[in-house]
Amino acid sequence: MKVGKDMKILITGGAGFIGSHLVDAFMRRGCDVVVFDNLSSGKIDSMKKWLKNKGFKFVKGDLRRKNEIERVVVGCDLIFHFAANPDVRAVPSAHFDDIIGTFNLLESLRGNVVSKFVFASSSTVYGEASKIPTPEDYAPLLPISMYGASKLACESLISSYAYYLGFKAVILRLANIVGPRCSHGVIHDFIVKLRRNPKELEILGDGSQMKSYLYIDDCIDAVMLIMEKFNNDVGIFNVGSEDQINVRRIAEIVVEVLNLKDVKFKFTGGVNGGRGWKGDVKVMLLDVSKLKSLGWKPKYDSEAAVRKAAEHLTREITE
Fold this sequence. Notes:
Low-confidence stretches: none
Largest sheet: 7 strands, parallel
Radius of gyration: 19 Å
Number of helices: 9
CATH topology of the largest domain: Rossmann fold
Order of helices and strands: EHEEHEHEHEEHEEEHEEHEHH
Number of domains: 2
CATH class of the largest domain: Alpha Beta
Distance between the termini: 43 Å
Mean pLDDT: 95
Number of strands: 13
Strand content: 15-25%
């Protein structure tokens, strides 16, 4: 599906990290964009360049209140559902709210013609995968965190509503996405900690946690390509880099970017075999061959993505 200037696009969570970059991409294409966000983690500043543009509209609202989203979906051709609590360690009720919000959004589509619905899911739906890299058809899906469970629940809701209401749906299982405007995650946390104490860095876990990191530009390129080339009823795509990096190396890169010397790393030891917290998936690498078959390839590997993100966030984070 080619995106035309006459299309109206709704982005829930458009004031957030990934959502705001998606806003940039569509606004540059001349589309009409509506952002629906409660600003619990997103920021108006992330969209400030578009606030006075006639093709852009921001609606402050909460997906937990169905009447608020019902008014916004009318006339929208494409929906990108990126609103969610980004904190993997948040209390279970916070992530359950994301399920409720997704249900309300889907219910609001009754009587509205939507061409495609794109959902930002997560690699955490795989849980502790025994197959690495992990393909989209891996089973059984046994998430070990409420964050992963909520994403999996939302996937199921979206799949069933797509068939029931007759719209096409794309589910994106994202690796760790990093870059400018990222307000959470290990890189952000390390920078904040080192600004407070440049002599010592506390690292959750044992430092051996090994995961995939993808730079935001590569992520947005993947989203746009999938949206345009995939036209089946419901599709699932892994979106991530082709390699991994461990937490200790991320710490070393952040220290290098901040030009610090002789920083002592203090590992907490972690839980359940060196994890940062209960529910932390220790090893993650997605099989992205399905996405690559569409013609996509990441420009940055995990280490380059982490370094580039750290350089941007060092300038952004003032604390």
